[in-house]
Amino acid sequence: MRHGDTQYAERWFGDGLEEARMGLSRYKVGAGLAVSDMDRARKFYEGKLGLSVSIDSGDNVQYRCAEASVMHVYLSPEHAGKSTATLASWGVDDVERVVDELNTRGVTFERYDEGPIITDEKGIATFEGGAKVAYFRDPDGNTLSIAQAPRS
Predict the structure, then answer these.
(1) CATH number, domain containing residue 100
(2) Domain count of the fold of the chain
(3) In Å, what is the CA distance from 42 to each residue of 78, 85, 110, 120, 123?
(4) Is the whole model's pTM more than 0.85, yes or no?
(5) Boundaries of domain holding 37
(6) Nearest CA to 109 among 138, 144, 134?
(7) For the CA atoms of 102, 107, 112, 113, what is the dihedral angle to 10 degrees?
(8) Which helix (H) or strand (E) holds 39?
(9) pLDDT tens profile 45-72
(10) Which class for 111: exposed (0-12), middle (13-18), buried (19 or more C-beta within 10 A)?
(11) Residue 27 Rama label (left phi>0; alpha psi -120 to 50; beta)
């Protein structure tokens, strides 16, 4: 069924028919990060983070992660490290164990002692409900994180 230029799908929800706009929620998503030096970035992403290359086209490398998720690292010096937001996050079962492992590989975690995020001595912030997040940066200053969901 078409509604103007937007495609719609019909879904059945118990007691009636609902028309819902088709969206991207049923597709996998991946992150993309701009870097200024591919050799330096590869040493970090492959050497320190232990990511595996799935596609290598020189100035654009795709790393495969769990559940067929991917992260693209591409050469774009004019955009590298410009964002102040967290650009990619890995969901982990035990944030403290992963922080310890990455520390041994040379990853340094951010420390925050004021504002909305306060970290402990390892760089782990604990949020309401028990979620834990540790933030770190790649060589260009792109902020990344590892996160543990609250225990239910």
Answers:
(1) 3.10.180.10
(2) 1
(3) 18, 21, 21, 29, 24
(4) no
(5) 2-148
(6) 134
(7) 80
(8) helix 38-42
(9) 999 999 999 999 989 999 998 888 899 9
(10) middle
(11) beta
